[in-house]
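Exercise: predict the fold of this chain.
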Amino acid sequence: MAEDLNITTSTDKTEQYTALIPQIEALLYGEPDLVANLANICAALKEQFKWFWVGFYLVKNGELVLGPFQGPVACTRIGLGKGVCGTAWQKAETLVVPDVEAFPGHIACSSLSQSEIVVPVFDNDEVVAVLDVDSELLDQFDEIDAKFMEQIVKLIKF
């Protein structure tokens, strides 16, 4: 596949995800390298939605370690139960945070981040990574984002 995305100009999130997911599948098809695939997922999401930060943290030696991402520099390591990422990892569930300032123990990698969604990535029922997306806008993410991002992370092969 040519590594070009067809960016959907619709303002309807469902339409945007519906157009983007097959393109992500095509980017991942036949590519066994995890880092390359995570990087392309980040780039595709950032290109389509223009969010502030999109990236993965990988579970390594009992902590989350920064993986491929798009956006400004980020926190390198996050402990279990720490911040939104560590809490999503600990609970093994997607967390949608409309206002990061209201989240107890939020880790501010950037003061520009206002809302966040974190989606766990599973391999054999174990959380092996999280997809973390931040926005400069309050209340940017909802159940539509959660539903489709959960579909996207299921495409990842560890």
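Check your answer against the key: Residues 13-28 form the longest helix (16 residues).
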